[in-house]
């Protein structure tokens, strides 16, 4: 694989970094809403929202460039729903959606006017769909929907006897209830409840379930594709969060003195920092390996499991190392490190249990070996 960043990745990284750096300077103590509409519009004006999407919707780029943008957003812990709105929802509409769907849901989000949120479930069915005339009827509930508190529409994965269904559902659809939820670092999540909500067939993204894979370039169903992109987005954001948390901690270890010496000169502190550096490198390498394979249309399930494992495992260790070395100042609400600790914990929880990813990886390797 190629670990070199493309010119487009470097350009988008630089543009995003400039934008979020200016925002950070102007907002040293951001609120807990988890969403800044003005910053979201600024992303749209700068062309960041649509640049990493395929033509004709965007600038002709893809998942590698999206990960580059997300890493910079993570470094600033900036409250913009790029992962949910662009990397998952808009990207899925670009890949599988009809032109009318793109115009109705993706275009307003890319102009910074609205946001979108994915409601994905994977192996644990939370929303079910049954035929209802010319459409589908959705029932069930899904909690902790990322960015759901302020989303105008949702990309919903629902389970049917013939396989997963992926559909766009407007916030105001009859039978849909959205309740704001507070998670570890913000109040942008939501609990969605579907009480026989009717979705027309024109809102279904990609082919309707027919009892088998859609066979689209070997990528599996649209729902599986969206779940993979969601995993990559979380890992990319986590990389930025951990890189910045480690940089802040290393700087603190140089400046903070104890017994007349910088605490970074003590062996125990150096060891913690060295271990954290290895963890961050593991997140970076596993992310770019999985993202590159995904960008090339190659099988990447095992690589995604490895990346998700490191996002969760390293997220836990690096976040706690940062707080431990900062001591009491690491959890002061008026100092920035606590935002990175909370962001890392949220990404850790979103990535899933690290042990479960190892189990999934082990099962896949056993199948490949014929065990």
Ends: how far apart?
A: 28 Å
Structural class from helices and strands?
Answer: alpha+beta
Sheet with the most strands? 4 strands, antiparallel
- Residues in helices, as a percent range: 40-55%
Parts with pLDDT < 50 across at least 5 consecutive residues: 213-219
What is the strand content?
Answer: 15-25%
Oligomer: single chain
Q: What's the rounded overall pLDDT mean?
A: 93
Structural Rg: 21 Å
| Strand line-up of the largest beta sheet | 2-3-7-6
- Which geometry do the CA atoms define? globular
Please write the string of helix (H) and strand (E) elements.
HHHHHHEEEEEEEHEEHHHH
Would you write up a description of this structure?
With 371 residues, this protein is α+β, with helices and mostly antiparallel strands. Helix content is 52%, strand content 16%. It is built from eleven helices and nine strands. The chain has a four-stranded antiparallel sheet with strand order 2-3-7-6, with no helix packed on it. α4 runs parallel beside α7 and α8 packs antiparallel against α9. The radius of gyration is 21 Å and the shape is globular. About 2% of the residues have low confidence.
SSE layout and pairings?
Blueprint: H1 7-26, H2 37-45, H3 48-51, H4 63-76, H5 82-96, H6 99-110, E1 116-119, E2 127-132, E3 135-145, E4 153-160, E5 163-170, E6 176-181, E7 189-200, H7 222-255, E8 257-258, E9 261-262, H8 267-295, H9 301-326, H10 337-351, H11 354-368
Parallel strand pairs: 1-4
Antiparallel strand pairs: 2-3, 3-7, 4-5, 6-7, 8-9
Helix pairs in contact: 1-4, 4-5, 4-7, 5-6, 5-7, 7-8, 7-9, 7-10, 8-9, 9-10, 9-11
């Amino acid at each position: 694989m190629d670990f070199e960043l493309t010119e487009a990745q470097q350009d988008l990284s630089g543009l995003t970094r400039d934008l979020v750096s200016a925002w950070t300077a102007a907002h040293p103590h951001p609120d807990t809403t988890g969403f800044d509409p003005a910053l979201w519009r600024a992303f749209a004006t700068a062309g960041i929202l649509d640049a990493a999407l395929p033509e004709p919707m965007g600038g002709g780029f893809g998942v590698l460039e999206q990960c580059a943008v997300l890493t910079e957003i993570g470094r600033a812990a900036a409250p913009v729903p790029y992962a949910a709105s662009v990397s998952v929802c808009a990207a899925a509409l670009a890949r599988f959606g009809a032109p009318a769907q793109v115009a109705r849901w993706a275009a307003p989000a890319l102009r910074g006017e609205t946001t979108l949120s994915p409601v994905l479930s994977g192996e644990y069915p939370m929303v079910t769909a049954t035929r209802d005339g010319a459409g589908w009827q959705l029932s069930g509930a899904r909690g902790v929907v990322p960015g759901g508190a302020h989303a105008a529409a949702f990309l919903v994965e629902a389970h049917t006897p013939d396989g997963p269904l992926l559909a766009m559902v407007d916030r105001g659809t009859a039978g849909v209830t959205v309740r704001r939820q507070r998670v570890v670092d913000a109040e942008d999540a939501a609990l969605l409840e579907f009480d026989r909500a009717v979705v027309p067939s024109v809102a279904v993204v990609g082919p309707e379930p027919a009892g088998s894979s859609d066979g689209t370039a070997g990528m599996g169903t649209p729902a599986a594709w969206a779940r993979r992109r969601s995993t990559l987005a979380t890992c990319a954001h986590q990389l930025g969060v951990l890189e910045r948390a480690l940089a802040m901690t290393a700087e603190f270890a140089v400046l903070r003195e104890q017994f007349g010496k910088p605490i970074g000169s003590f062996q125990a502190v150096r060891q913690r920092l060295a271990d954290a550096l290895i963890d961050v490198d593991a997140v970076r390498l596993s992310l770019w390996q999985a993202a590159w394979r995904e960008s090339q249309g190659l099988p990447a399930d095992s690589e995604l499991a490895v990346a998700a494992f490191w996002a969760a495992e390293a997220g836990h260790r690096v976040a706690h190392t940062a707080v431990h070395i900062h001591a009491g100042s690491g959890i002061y609400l008026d100092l920035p490190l606590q935002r990175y600790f909370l962001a890392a914990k949220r990404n850790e929880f979103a990535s899933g249990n690290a042990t479960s990813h190892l189990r999934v990886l082990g099962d896949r390797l056993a199948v490949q070996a014929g065990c």
